[in-house]
Write a structure and sequence with these properties.
By secondary structure, this protein is of the alpha+beta class. 44% of the residues lie in helices and 26% in strands. The strands form 2 sheets. Strands 3-4-5-6 form a 4-stranded mixed beta sheet, with helices on both faces. Strands 1-2 form a two-stranded antiparallel sheet.
Length: 127
């Protein structure tokens, strides 16, 4: 058997990690705020920077990730725990990433302001 492949009922397939499977599930069930922000970030609309949504960065899955600028954008709702988020953010920053966090209601009520903040972070990285 080839490493990384599994035998399923319909043939051979690639073995996926749990974060990859979680990311796929999260992409299918985005919140309204995540969906609204994704419409602003996708297709390199923001100064030509490419973003990925619900991207696995083992052991976590981040809401939006720009690999070129090492920028992570998190959209938080009421289900987030401040203690868990702090631990997660410390780990992501220790890996060389910058993290921006926005509340769902900020994205929904002030999308342009959120996008401007993300653009500023991208421009500061590019300089």
């Amino acid at each position: 058997m080839t490493p990384g492949l599994i035998r399923g009922s319909i043939g051979w397939g690639v073995l996926q990690s749990m974060p990859s499977l979680t990311a796929r599930r999260l992409r299918a069930s985005m919140t309204d705020a995540e969906r609204r922000l994704w419409w602003q970030l996708r297709y390199k609309q923001l100064d030509g920077f490419r973003f990925r949504r619900q991207h696995p960065l083992d052991p976590y899955v981040v809401d939006f990730f720009c690999p070129e600028a090492h920028l992570i954008v998190e959209v938080d709702g009421g289900q987030h725990s401040p203690e868990v988020d702090k631990k997660r953010q410390r780990w992501l920053e220790s890996q060389g990433h910058r993290v921006l966090r926005f509340w769902n209601n900020d994205v929904l009520q002030n999308t342009e302001g959120v996008v401007a903040t993300i653009r500023d972070a991208l421009q500061s990285w590019a300089q």
